[in-house]
Amino acid sequence: MLKLPLGKTAPRLLEDLISYDPRNSRRDVLSEDAPKFIPPKPSLPRRVSSDTCRHSFMDKPDQSIIPPLESRPGPGSTYRVASFCNDCRCHLLLKLEYRGDLPGEVPCPNQEFPLHHFRFVPHKSRCRPASANSLGEPWTEERVFECSSYVCSAVLTVVLSPPRLAPEYVTLLTDKEVITERVRRAEMDGPDRDWEDSEELVGPFEVLTRLRKYVSDAMRSLQKKKISARNKKFVTALGEECQELLEFLGFTFDEAQDVWLLPEVDVSHGPPFEDSLKVLLDDVDKELLILIAKRPWKESSKGKTAVYFHPLPSYKNLQRVLGCLDCKIILFPHLVEYILMPNAKDDKRLSSRRQIDLTQDEHPHYASLGALADFSDDLLSFAYDRQRLCDPVNAPYYFECLRTLAELRQSEPLSTKVAVLESQGEISSRDITQAYEYFRLRPDGLDMEDDYIIGTYKSRIEDAPRQEAEMRTKLRIIGQARRSEKIQYVASNTVTTYEQALTWLGANNHTADDFVVSLVTFKLGESKADERIAREAIRIIAESRNSRALKNWLKTGHMEEVDMDVGQAYSRLGIDDRTLDDDTILTTFSLRVEDEPEQLNDLRAALKAIGKEKSSYRIESFLNTGKMSDQFSPDWPVGLENIGNTCYLNSLLQFYFTVKPLRDLILNFDRFKMEISPENLEKKKVGSRKVSRKEVERAQKFAYELQKLFRNLITARASAITPDYELARLTLISSVNEEHYRRMSMASAHGPSALGEINGAPIQGPVGPPQLSSHMDVDVETPDEKPLETIHSDAGSDATLVGDVSDKNPTHDEVDFVMLDGDDNGTQAQGLIDKENNPPPGNSLENLLSQDSQDASPNENGVPSEEEQVNGAPPTLPAEATACPPDRPPPVPPRPNPSETQKPRGELEMGAQQDVTEVIANVLFQLECAIRATSFEADGEQVDQIKQLFYGKTKSYINKPGEALRVKEEFFADIKVDVAAGPRDIYSALDGAFDEQQIEVDEATARQFHSISHNPPILQIQVQRVQFDKAKNTPYKADSHLALEKVIYLDRYMESNDPILMSRRERTWQWKEELLKLERRRREALANTGKSFTQANLNVVDMLNLTKDWLEDIQAASEWGMDDGLVVEPDIPLALEKEAENAMMELQHINASIEDLQYQLSRQFSDLRQRAYRLHSVFIHRGTVSFGHYWIYIYDFQRNIWRKYNDGYVTEVVDESEVFEQEASNPATPYFLIYVQDKYKDELVDAVCREIIDE
């Protein structure tokens, strides 16, 4: 959970506003949280530096909207105060708006909230460092605050801006030497005029008043005035040197008339000023008044001009708008008597503020609570309550602040409140520090594991059992501070709820019963003192789950589940007649489950006992699959049986069947089929290459096979059907790779068989880059040498379960299978575990593939055509091998040279293994080859229904210094995202595909980013999980969790002419660069350097503190004459302590900065919600890089349910967490995601399409 900025009351905010000088403040007291002050400290810290301007704000009434004294704000009310500082001339605009979007709104101040409590909103704010003024483009800081009250919708905007008159302008107007030189130059330009005493009469005072008169006339005069450029007063006061200043103020020079025209201001509309030019002139008018007032009085006495400057302070108006003016005190019920009682002023209880000693610095704890030192006890208590509610994580620190201030003020009401809170279990940071020190642990040890703290407590309690009560109190404080339920349960020495029992054991709701017992055994091995609480935890879990196995363990110490007596089983289901048929029993069971869902396990045990007594295959099948029967349903999808390593293929086919436009195209293929003619083949270009006749014929054959399957899925009178082997072959193997397999078969007489072979080359289904294995000889295998294990991976995306049948079977957790409460003999589980290793049923695909391998024969010279060599086709044979007469058979490829024979077997077999994305690409490629084009791109690329459905376009931008921006637009079929770096959400993953990154172009560094220029109706996202471990020289699967969203919005990635969107993207890239630097620095600060004798990880702070303690021990030993000759300089321990403190402060600053950046990133595009895509399908893989199992989840938008397609079984997903959450051990992970455009989802996908024909 991201940390939100803390708050402060309105008076505190006003005080910080007065103290904040953007140019000199060392800390942003407006936006940043007050730094924690934890005694003992040598002295109270100064809040602001000595050179900071403490503003004296004055009114700009013509720009302000002030509420009347007797008025109350309501929904839609807007007030503002425009001010300027009488010292530094900076400008302040404070605007308060009441949005009126809260039910039952009661704006502050009110009875419950005597003051506004404002919280900074960083993502709506715009803060820039106050650098030097750029003429016409001054810096501006705009901060937005929101009232934290749940009944007040106030939004406060604070805008600070620098003086309008930049330093160079002020020099032109006030520097005496500059003015004197200007007068002399005017005398030289006009010697015929009377310039007597001009130098004495024209000074800074005259120049400032002259310019102010021009500005004032421009704002108030209805006539358009002119100033002659040769006017004596104008020339001596301003002249040509001030031309840039005059133009900045809106003056224009008319060369024809040789006059200056005053700024054209619309004076028909009175205050408050809204026009930017009028606001500018009003600001400059106020600044000129300040500069005039600061001139010595003797300057004004030289001339005849007199200026009466009476600025009005804006402090009261600021208080009034912020709702903290003292006159508002009558709003509180207990203060109404103030007006009615003659002696009310003598009652100090009625004062909202208290008298303080202004000679003393304010204690920093006031700032931490967002309060002021002159707050009454009631207001201070209110400020504490708001901070405590807004930031519960730091509640101990706020309680420490309240307790310290109660003691400092010697306040009885505050002391009483502190005592009440302590009795309710509230703890302070002082209590936490003392608790850690009690166990000799570091108070800042947030990186310590809970188990380490609990272990320390247990070891201490064994040494001093009489202090158990005190130790438990201290442990409870630590647990409360860390918000650790686990530590608090240990401290309380009891568990009372199911959740507490799981937490105490370190388990969760999905932890299996046998693993729960393992956790208990492990805990009791650590400490026998926990036996009572351990058994209580098991009892609670057993009762909550109604687990007979756990109940049996409590009685006997064994996990075996006791079978329910068959008579008890019939009675449990409420069945009196034991002759009922199986369907009636199953129907009764289902009704009982609907009535008592919490008793599912007990009801299943009863059903299992009945099924075992009846030897009922139907009941056993139901327990294993969750299906009432194998009968088909007219409104339920049909499953696809696994024919040998085809679980991924089945998932892919099920997805394609739900895509309505594709399904209609396949079912009506003859309407879209391309006529094979020389003219059509000449124009045929798919995937940026020409397509051969043979490829088109093969593709159309594939389309007809797919049509046959789709028709069976619609009309089948069964719950599952078996795909044809020919469809599997055409789907899994591309035409290019068929020739490659044939060539490989000539080099190897052996190889594993799965789907089948093409002349000896194995078809393994969709897998990824193989693991490296032993070397192999491509020709023969020696008789005494064991065949090498073929290890396949799920690289690039995923792997189906493959491997030699003779290999050791994977474990129960390594392969997904459908099994509910297991059978005694384990036969069912074993069969399901091995289902991907079982040979194909019936007719083997080997013969079918070998018969059809002729389709991929080489040309008459024995060499594949140019088209067939694209995308990984083998290289052309040497000339001597290809120069053969056409009537002779193709030559045998030359024997590999020694370097080739030493390659790992996995590399040589890689051509015979299809990557998941290659299978998808093969399907889309064949479909495009099979149908005719609807149009053509400029480069000749075919455009058709497939491209329009699955393909989008991206624009790639490459910015290389010194060159023009390179832009390239191209098609994309999927977006590849990476999770190798760790868990992330879907947006963070997608950002990696579109964010700016550095690349090398022509040996120079350039920056590249992508945008979507055309978004596809169906968006495919590939999750790249297989990575390569360079140290081990092996691939591995990254199981990091990818948090999916039901709806994603692609607005942030779209190509757009809107400069604001691009600016927002660029800002996120900058934030991410900052975030990477901060995270890198944090890793360095927390770098684990090994383990000490306490087996605790050591970071920089640990090392500094331990070194300091060691040196202090040496110093102490030296004082007692026990030193061993080591001499420690007295300042070294103190220096180490200081370094440790600095390191810890840096770490805290880094953490706060990281949280702030993460918060800003999470909100940067939250308002862009036009390009909506809904999650439709999730391809899942469970297993490792070398084996595993696939299935797919598909969402039915018509029925609003998820279904799980697991080969022949199609079941409803009861709990959506199955799709969106991830187990801790051997997780099932998403590999391929399908999102569809939300506005077209009903036209794009349809999960159920059934039309059963009566027999």
UniProtKB/TrEMBL annotation:
InterPro entries: Papain-like_cys_pep_sf, Peptidase_C19_UCH, UBP14-like, UCH_repeat_domain, USP, USP_CS. GO terms for biological process: proteasome-mediated ubiquitin-dependent protein catabolic process; protein deubiquitination; regulation of proteasomal protein catabolic process. PROSITE patterns: USP_1, USP_2, USP_3. Residues 638-1238 form the USP domain. Gene3D superfamilies: Cysteine proteinases. Residues 844-862 have a biased composition (Polar residues). Residues 886-897 have a biased composition (Pro residues). The keyword Ligase does not apply. It catalyses: Thiol-dependent hydrolysis of ester, thioester, amide, peptide and isopeptide bonds formed by the C-terminal Gly of ubiquitin (a 76-residue protein attached to proteins as an intracellular targeting signal). Its EC number is 3.4.19.12. Residues 755-908 are annotated as: Disordered. It is an enzyme of class 3 (hydrolase). This is ubiquitinyl hydrolase 1. The lineage of its organism: Eukaryota, Fungi, Dikarya, Ascomycota, Pezizomycotina.
